[in-house]
Amino acid sequence: MKSVALLGATGSIGLQTIDVLRREPEAFELVAVSGGEQLSELAAIAREFRVARIGVISDQHREVLRDLVARDVEIVVGDDGLTSLSRDADIIVNAVLGFAGLPVTLSALSAGKRLALANKESLIAAAPLVDAVRSTPGATLLPIDSEHCAIHQCLASSSAQAGYPDVRRLLLTASGGPFRGWSHDQLRRATKEDALNHPTWSMGAKITIDSSTLMNKGLEVLEASALFGVGVDRVDVVVHPQSIVHSMVEYVDGSVLAQLSRPDMRLPIAYCLGLPERLDHAWGELDFTRALELTFEPPDLDAFPALTLAYEAARLGGAAPAWLSAANEVAVAAFLADRIAWHEIVGVVARVMDGYLPDPLRTLEDLVENDALARHRAHGIVGL
Ligand code: NAD
Ligand code: MG
């Protein structure tokens, strides 16, 4: 039996992880959870799984939660709390949203744990710092993000030397989001409802908006480069509207390996929990007795400039990816709060990136400073 700490338990990935754990009571014990604002949901999870420890973001939240869970449950607060929880178990699932997930990533790896990582923002912003703690004995970083989980599976055919010299390129698939094929005029009139209506995946609001701008795919290019140690010039994006092929690896001999399933995040979650074994439950099973159409096309870089911005940030290196991700978090929050229009989101990020001050990003303090500066610039632009 392996113990699991689930940080960000009340979100989209968190609840799907709960679903997987519910079906595997013999294999996993949930020992710790954390959450943001959804305290009654968090308490319900804690009671169902009889967890020993819970992390919350403020003393006020701790007081509310105190009356909702058993007396002997320990409630910890803030970043220090999250950090302590991420040392609690054999497997840490980081399903926290945004930059706030960084302490979980760093502390789980530093403690030599298996980190099942959904929180891509922390890896993208802090790649050099994450790299430094990945070599801690016992530390394993497994990606929950479906594309990267697919690549992880397809790389099983590689000799796995550093930098994967037998791999020509990684091919990240993108659904294209709800606005695939829309004209510039149509995009200028896109509403929040349109943007939140993803054609193939059901996800949290921030990543759903990121998928509509293709910023999610841009962030995933950076994520793939950081995870697999492959330069972004060897990471390409292919639009695949059916979201059945979750990504591909092209080898130097021309072979392309792909991982397929119906879109269901419980599959990559279960993969990351079960490795080296596969859990015996088919999430997203495909039915080949019916016709299945799979199509592929290049992304429209003109309509979706976020992708180009992400490649530029990767080439700049240092703190540029952290600026990109921070500016994007602010722009998406402003869009969700009806402060800016959909077509302005990526423009805000581009303006912040225009003012990027090169920084090699050596320490956590550097990163926190850069994150704050990029957010400050973005807030100035959106007027929040
Ligand atoms: P979500 O908004 O549904 O859930 C986020 C979770 O984090 C919630 O439990 C929330 O309470 C908690 N949280 C939010 N802000 C916090 C803060 N400041 N401090 C502590 N906890 C906080 O998000 P999600 O869609 O589940 O995504 C979580 C992460 O997984 C993101 O980084 C996202 O990019 C990544 N991801 C999500 C999906 C998906 O299908 N939803 C797929 C791939 C990757
Ligand atoms: Mg993804």
Protein described:
This protein is α/β, with parallel strands linked by helices. The chain folds into 2 domains: 2-143, NAD(P)-binding Rossmann-like Domain (Rossmann fold), CATH 3.40.50; 151-316, no CATH class. Helix content is 44%, strand content 15%. Strand 5, helix 5 and strand 6 form a beta-alpha-beta unit. Helix 5 (102-110) packs parallel to helix 7 (127-134), helix 11 crosses helix 15 (320-336) and helix 15 (320-336) runs parallel beside helix 17 (364-382). The mean pLDDT is 97. Residues 8-14, 35-38, 57, 95-97, 100, 118-121, 145, 201, 203-204, 206-207, 265 line the site of nicotinamide-adenine-dinucleotide.
Largest sheet, spatial ordering of strands: 4-3-2-1-5-6-7
Q: If you compute it from the alpha carbons, what radius of gyration comes out, rounded to the nearest whole angstrom?
A: 20 Å
Give the ligands present: nicotinamide-adenine-dinucleotide, magnesium ion
Residues in β-strands, percent: 15-25%
Mean pLDDT: 97
Number of individual domains: 2
Element string (H = helix, E = strand): EHEHEHEHEHEHHEHEHHHHEEEHHHHH
Low-confidence stretches: none
- Counting helices, strands and paired strands, the structural category is alpha/beta
Q: What share of the residues lie within helices? A: 40-55%
How far is it from the N-terminal to the C-terminal residue, by CA?
Answer: 48 Å
Question: Which sheet architecture does the biggest sheet show?
Answer: 7 strands, parallel
Quaternary structure of the protein: single chain
Count of DSSP H/I helices: 17
